Amino acid sequence: MYSEKVMKHFLSPQNAYRMLDADAEGSLGDPSCGDSLTMFIKVRDNYIEKISYLAFGCCALIAVSSMTTVLAMGEHLNDALRITEEDVIRALDGLSPMKQHCSNLGVGALRKAINNYYEAKRQTEILIKEVSR
């Protein structure tokens, strides 16, 4: 049985689309259950300006992905990195123990996207320094 919030985010998911102009993305999948998720972020001044996702999986994964984007939207990257699986589960008014692994995918894909953003930014800064020499 799913909470009302889980069903709301499953039936009317927020931010579910492929962001073509994303600054970074992070993908995760769980081969044991077949779920996969890609999270996209657009960043301005170290804040998440836009966030979206594409998910393939169960009701819980769709709801977790939607809620993760809601929690991260507008957050400073460092604050978004602090979002936990428990935060997502709590915001959805709970998930059954059998479905809690889905929250790992949501938070993990978000963290991966942010880390990929930081890595791309670092590489760009290195290139700029090399060109400036």
Secondary-structure topology with pairs:
Blueprint: H1 4-11, E1 24-30, E2 35-44, E3 47-56, H2 59-72, H3 77-81, H4 85-91, H5 101-132
Give structural notes.
The protein is of the alpha+beta class. The protein has one domain: Sufe protein. Chain: A (Alpha-Beta Complex), CATH 3.90.1010.10. Helices cover 50% and strands 20% of the residues. It is built from five helices and three strands. It has helices spanning 4-11, 59-72, 77-81, 85-91, 101-132; strands spanning 24-30, 35-44, 47-56. The protein has a three-stranded antiparallel sheet. α2 packs across α5. It is elongated and about 60 Å long. The termini are far apart. The mean pLDDT is 92.
Q: Could you give a short account of the major beta sheet? A: 3 strands, antiparallel
Please report the number of helical segments. Answer: 5
**Low-pLDDT windows of residues:** none
C-alpha-based Rg, rounded:
16 Å
Structural class: alpha+beta
Q: Determine the strand fraction and express it as a percent band.
A: 15-25%
> Distance between the terminal alpha carbons, to the nearest Å?
62 Å
